Amino acid sequence: MRKNSPRFSPRTGAAVLLLALSAVPALLFGAEEKKEPAHSVMRELPGNTPYVHPSLEISFPPEIGSYRKTAVVENANPVYGTIVRYTGSRGESADIYLYSNDTGGALLEEKELLPEYEKTKNMLLKGKEKSSSLVPVKEEIRLAGEKVLRDWGKSLPAYRCDFQCSLGDERYNSTLILSLLEGPKSAYVREQEAKKKKVLYGKFVKIRISWSSEIASSTADAEEFLKALSFLLFPRPAPVSAPQADKKGKSIPSPAGEKRQEKVPGGH
Questions:
Q1: Does 266 map to a domain?
Q2: In-domain check, residue 261
Q3: Low-confidence ranges of the chain (pLDDT < 50)
């Protein structure tokens, strides 16, 4: 296993990657073309304590896998919503963004999910210029693959795309996952669902996680984080990881096999 390469040391490479990923937070979520309204209010909360989202009632712990929660930002404008950030010890960064589609925080339908995913993915693929007094570089992003995650939600899919990126001399991998969250439902929401005969959702959830492609163990840590996060966002029984053996040593098949991965409709 290759450890930290000279180009991505814990002190320099991690700092460069974190600086680059945090320099333009809106870009990470494909929202760089939106202008922050004058009346919008942001509230920063401690990162090292559990955070419970007020409407979704999801509790984000101080740690998920090897990642630590370092920041929470709540925005009064529901279009910008809430950002929960986790970071790893080697420059890894994971942002969870919970937001609405309009300033009124209207309920969402499943038909809005795929267009939002495609819009976000395409904005990220543009590769915007990122500059600061320390890092005047251009981010290059290449799509490495897409899949539909059927095992995240109950009947609703999550869309995932993976990128190979470069930022100056640094090389890193990045993953985007987008889905919808229901949250607790009032009598009014239940009434609207009955009228429309469809499930209504409270928020979009976007996840953008990035890590160095030159640190082999970072990929395993990122996948561990995403798996744990999926159970946090969409609680469900944990899958059986491997067949068990009976007393005679014969294997007992798992009650449920792995789900087939699907390509994103209209994707690559």
A1: no
A2: no
A3: 1-39, 131-133, 247, 249-260
CA angle 88–90–95, rounded 5-degree value: 35
Q: What are the backbone dihedrals phi and psi of residue 100, each rounded to the nearest 5 degrees, phi first?
A: -110, 175
pLDDT recorded at residue 68: 96
Structure tokens at 181: 């969250």
Neighbours of 113 (CB within 10 A): 19
If you search the block for the tokens 């995403």, which residue do you land on? 226
Q: What is the pLDDT of residues 162-173, one digit of tens each?
A: 999 988 888 999
CATH number of domain containing 189: 3.40.1000.10
Q: What domain count does the chain have? A: 1
Of the candidates 29, 233, 27, 214, the residue with the CA atom closest to the CA atom of residue 117:
29
How far is the CA of 38 from the CAs of 30, 34, 74, 103, 221, in angstroms? 20, 12, 16, 13, 39
Sign of the CA dihedral running 28, 31, 36, 41: negative
Write out the residue range of the structural domain in which residue 63 sits: 6-238
Amino acid at 43: R
- Domain-located, residue 28: yes
Within-domain flag for 244: no
Phi–psi pair at 205, nearest 5 degrees: -125, 125
